[in-house]
């Protein structure tokens, strides 16, 4: 291959080897992957453990620690670009991520919705859109001071960011956290407690609760539903589904499942962040290396709405999603819910994950004293009074399965009360290992997936060896005893990885921008923004598929607010306070970034008009409009480089 010739700064030509392009592109791609993996697989779970240990309220943790974890790629790219490489790529990454989140994540959420539309909670929508609009306004004001550098009056204009503008950005985020913390009280005060969605009808079943039903205040009685208490019930209803399920009568039933069938799960919630590089959603990829396959996954034997019932043995089996204890503080997470195949016998509950060799990762659940359910959202909470045991939150894929599971739980409560037996759990089981290892070989997967695995193996192995995983649990589903100490160590190591990954991303993209003679800000708005925002898109799409579309949309706006107020406000505040000692920061060239901020504002106005006109309901046609707008934005961002 011939060398690529580009014009140099002196008017001549400089030969650049194709391997330079390949190396820089590979470095940027790997840095995107590593930042996403470190964030989702290590950083967020560790922060979640710390938040649980110190009993940080869900709303506060979600708006602070968990928001910092989820948006860490944008935050660290901004810090690296500001303090190390001194470029506008960090600012461009944040601005580009804002537009991507608002348009593409919202479009993906509504397209993945169960009933082809999303009903948004008006109070949450007003809060998130309101603070985002305020952050866009403050960002525009902070960037509005642009003039030539006094040392180079004939040179390009620079943007001047003052200490007070930066401090105002960061200060508004503190107000945002306070509003999130006391949001229910604020809404109740403004609406006299009549706003729909603040309280939801929940039922309490079981022998200890005497099967009573009552209207339970979710923040008081069911705080584990932090992410669902504002979720409209309409988002959990599928437009067309087999609510009755398909019952399979079998003669024998074991923990590993029943009769085998060639079928697929219609959707999955807890696919790994790596899944979007190989396969995603239903696992229908071409099989290879069959000699490595030991058995099929449960989802390859049963459809999502299938269940098995052995009347003679009193055994009932079905799919349920189980809330991860390591992501319960997150507003949204790809691994927040795990699809597991549950088996209910006359005296116990057990489950296995939806992956290969699942018998090595079985959970046997401790005895619980009662259950709390939300019948509209198909949620079930298994409650125990033992402080050494945690409660479990389950979600059924259909109303029929939900009712059958509740019935089986009540039968178990009656059995345990009558037997008055000591709790017996199979402690000889292997470590349940809530999540697959980063270095676990994908046996039986497609050739493409295995190739990707081999390419990423050196990086995954290094990550696996240097950053501890807090998500190892016992066969009872309980985290290990020293998990808090491990979490703090994991956070420190994650910060180091994120700094290195962000530097590799920023540096490689800046070099690519130089080779293509494109401003750093434009590369940040396009390539860097998409690369750092893809994990959020995957998580939001998964959430919408399971009925949490309102949460996905609000998370998109919440991430945007964090990116502006903290991702830009905090580094600028620190730099102007300690780097320039109070003088304005003027290291950013005016490369059209203000125009992109105006585009952000315009898109936001369009979104508000749509939501007012549709009474806070997003339809599929909204998604196509959003995707068209994002395409136009990319054309504009790239075109202004070559047409100016």
From TrEMBL:
Keywords: Antiport, Membrane, Transmembrane, Transmembrane helix, Transport. One of its GO terms (cellular component) is plasma membrane. One of its GO terms (biological process) is intracellular calcium ion homeostasis. It comes from Ditylum brightwellii. The chain crosses the membrane at residues 16-34, 124-143, 163-183, 447-466, 486-506, 593-613, 619-643. It is found in: Membrane. NCBIfam families: calcium/sodium antiporter (TIGR00367). Gene3D superfamilies: NCX, central ion-binding region. GO terms for molecular function: calcium channel activity; calcium, potassium:sodium antiporter activity. It is a multi-pass membrane protein. Belongs to the Ca(2+):cation antiporter (CaCA) (TC 2.A.19) family. SLC24A subfamily. This is Sodium/calcium exchanger membrane region domain-containing protein. Residues 28-180, 487-638 form the Sodium/calcium exchanger membrane region domain. InterPro entries: K/Na/Ca-exchanger (IPR004481), NaCa_Exmemb (IPR004837), NCX_ion-bd_dom_sf (IPR044880).
